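Hi everyone,

Forwarding the result from last night's run.
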Amino acid sequence: MNVEQFVMAYQVEHDRIRAILPEGYESLRPVFRINTEIRTGEKEIVYVEFNTPVEKDGKRGWLNIANWNSADTDLSYERNGKSITFVSPFLEITYKGIGIEGGCPAEKDNEGCFFIGNETKFVPAEKIDANKEFCDCEFVWKFAKENAYGKSIGKSVAVPPTEVKHIYEKQDFSAEIAANITCELVAGCYLVKFIR
């Protein structure tokens, strides 16, 4: 299938992530990632994944908070020149390619993705050789009025881990809780096209 993938990461308070992680997972950086794909095969599917970087049992990768696809969720997109906006009842996100190609440093520290369900599944990282185009990005979560909002600042920014400063009460590991954590900075975003 042909895949058009749009990836963005944003910085949040590290201790807020620690407060929602399930037992056994260690947060690597104070970052959430939204990965959006247009998958074109026999039919077109829009897929959205919401993750955070973790380590568990010696593996480093992304812990899936939630994922949705247009086969069972109201997900759509609209193109306007170099911009593409993905719309759903819970998220609106716009990417605009800026014509500069490069790589993503976080991929060097990524063995795959953890999916929690009845059993935890670890899916090895996908190797993508295609060039990535950096983007400007703007997003808003729409589960509730006070949800996170962010807009890129025109460059990618490294987000290192931080020491524990506050111990927050444990909360559920869910998209609704995570989306309510304030975006401090859009760290970077890119788009890439490849065949899966």
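The mean pLDDT is 93.

Cheers,
N.
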